Task: inverse folding
């Protein structure tokens, strides 16, 4: 068996067994990381595979979270099977609407307009009665997963939430893996490689980019929804540009355009954050320094280590 | 005019004060190879860019099978059957040669928006890609990453990608540029094979190839059509000889 497959299986087994250790704090921490991994995976589709560097991806994360907060009734629990699809669809539609305008521009302008739209959404939730202002929304009840009288799992139980998020992360990973091998996904990678040639070969590039932007937004909405579900609390900071920047940093840490990189990056980012914040209150300085060093010495991100390792140890024939 | 597949009328493109292409009227016919020659800066590539839609015309019209396509986007023009190659190799360097052609062929299928099925499992597109590689003389090179191909092979790939889109009109911008004698010979053979069922516009500096292949030659100088006609007429033309082929004092004046 290939080394990479072995490493992947080992990681999956560890994640699957992790809550059995019974350390609730860490179970919740890894749940949070897996939610961020979904968020980073959604951004990888845009940045790593379509060549669109969005600096406003948190907008759709936040919208996904707010859909749950705003749909949840005050005195009873919201239903997962109703609110979750709504969050995905509405975040996707928001991305579709923004996308019709922003995917027309390129490079630095794309970065700026995605940021501008994200800030707009931020202030919609921050400054309006509809968005409940800067205090955000505290939900009184966790959503329930009831289908009629049957409730397959309990979203108030940290281990159940963990496995639900784990399943969601795997589903997103597999979905993106399939999508990237499909005709649509290959066209996106063609656009990233050489947009002009794609156009002259007959691809309506605008529509492909727009679809990519909307799908990425919908998946970010899923991540945001899960975050709201885990913490029961939503505020405008979920949409802030810090959040958009953090998810970009996760991708850069882990490595762009490999999917694995997005997951590894999310874990590394939170691990470094936890490590440095336990040492000093100026942890952001250390985190920033670490990221600069990584970019200099490991431009392909952490996910590239495995490939490099393989090449030196077992020669070129090892993979693919 | 009637049986022309692609025809321009008074086509012009201005860059500020420079008339890069002025009042160009040409026709392309199925089964005919139309060569476009002229010194550097004559407006040959500008004309190809106008025909492929990568540049907007400042004035004039372009008709394809009688329909006005002057304002169609480049991707739309490609889909209705106008394919082009580039003077500077313009490929997907990180993809294999096969994938370069497969993605080109994929643009022809309504399945292009399938987002789950593996693209490599769709035989019609893969077959079209293989045929294009073979036609361009790249069979056996499919698994090579495009960036690792030799310069000549990359030029062949450039043509293979256009062929994979099964166009009716071929706009070829110096396909022989940078090729060795043997590769160039093969490319000339390929163009001969393609000519009967395509309408070809060939921009080329290699005069031997042009005179061997062309049914019609148009000579451009400084954005204007100097003369257009069968090879014998161009060969005998005093104006062309003076302006382009280089004839004593006239050559100095032209450059």
Result:
């Amino acid at each position: 068996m290939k080394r990479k497959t072995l490493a992947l299986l080992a990681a999956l087994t560890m994640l699957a067994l992790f809550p059995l250790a019974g350390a609730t704090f860490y179970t919740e921490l890894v749940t949070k990381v897996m939610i961020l991994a979904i968020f980073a995976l959604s951004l990888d589709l845009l940045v790593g595979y379509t060549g669109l560097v969005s600096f406003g991806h948190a907008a759709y994360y936040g919208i996904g979270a707010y859909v749950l907060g705003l749909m949840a009734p005050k005195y009873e629990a919201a239903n997962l099977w109703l609110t979750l699809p709504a969050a995905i669809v509405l975040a996707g539609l928001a991305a579709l609407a923004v996308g019709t305008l922003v995917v027309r521009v390129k490079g630095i302008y794309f970065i700026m307009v995605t940021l501008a739209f994200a800030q707009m959404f931020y202030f919609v939730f921050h400054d309006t009665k509809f968005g409940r202002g800067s205090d955000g929304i505290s939900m009184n009840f966790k959503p329930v997963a009831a289908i009629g009288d049957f409730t397959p799992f309990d979203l108030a139980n940290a281990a159940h939430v963990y496995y639900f998020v784990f399943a969601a992360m795997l589903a997103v990973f597999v979905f993106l893996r399939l999508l990237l091998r499909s005709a649509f996904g290959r066209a996106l990678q063609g656009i990233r490689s050489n947009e002009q040639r794609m156009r002259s070969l007959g691809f309506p590039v605008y529509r492909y980019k727009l679809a990519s932007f909307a799908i990425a937004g919908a998946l970010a909405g899923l991540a945001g929804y899960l975050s709201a579900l885990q913490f029961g609390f939503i505020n405008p900071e979920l949409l802030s540009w810090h959040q958009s920047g953090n998810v970009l940093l996760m991708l850069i840490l882990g490595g762009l355009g490999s999917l694995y990189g997005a997951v590894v990056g999310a874990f590394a980012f939170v691990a470094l954050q936890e490590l440095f914040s336990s040492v000093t209150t100026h942890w952001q300085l250390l985190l920033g320094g670490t990221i600069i060093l990584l970019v200099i010495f490991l431009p392909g991100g952490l996910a590239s280590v495995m490939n490099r390792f393989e090449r030196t140890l077992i020669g070129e024939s090892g993979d693919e | 005019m009637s049986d022309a597949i692609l025809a321009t009328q008074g086509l012009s493109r201005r860059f500020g004060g420079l008339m890069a292409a002025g009042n160009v009227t040409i026709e392309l016919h199925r089964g005919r190879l139309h060569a476009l020659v002229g010194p550097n800066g004559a407006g040959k590539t500008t004309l190809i860019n106008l025909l492929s839609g990568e540049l907007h015309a400042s004035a004039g019209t372009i008709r394809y099978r009688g329909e006005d396509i002057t304002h169609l986007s480049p991707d739309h023009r490609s889909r209705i059957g106008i394919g082009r190659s580039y003077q500077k190799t313009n490929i997907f360097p990180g993809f294999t040669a096969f994938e370069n052609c497969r993605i080109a062929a994929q643009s022809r299928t309504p399945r292009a928006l399938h987002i789950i099925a593996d693209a490599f499992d769709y035989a019609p597109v893969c077959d079209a890609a293989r045929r294009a590689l073979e036609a361009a003389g790249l069979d056996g090179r499919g698994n090579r990453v495009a960036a690792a191909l030799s310069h000549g092979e990359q030029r062949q790939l450039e043509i293979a990608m256009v062929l994979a889109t099964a166009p009716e009109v071929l706009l070829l911008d110096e396909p022989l540029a940078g090729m060795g004698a043997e590769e160039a010979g093969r490319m000339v053979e390929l163009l001969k094979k393609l000519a009967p069922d395509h309408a070809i516009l060939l921009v080329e500096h290699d005069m031997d190839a042009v005179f061997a292949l062309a049914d019609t030659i148009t000579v451009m100088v400084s954005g204007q059509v100097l003369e257009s006609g069968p090879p014998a007429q161009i060969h005998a033309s005093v104006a062309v000889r003076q302006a382009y082929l280089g004839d004593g004092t006239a050559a100095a004046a032209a450059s």
In short: Chain A touches chain B at residues 178-179, 181-187, 189-190, 193-194, 196-205, 211 (CB under 8 Å). The CA atoms of residues 128 and 134 of chain A lie 9 Å apart. The first strand of chain A starts at residue 137 and ends at 138. Chain A has one domain: 3-318.
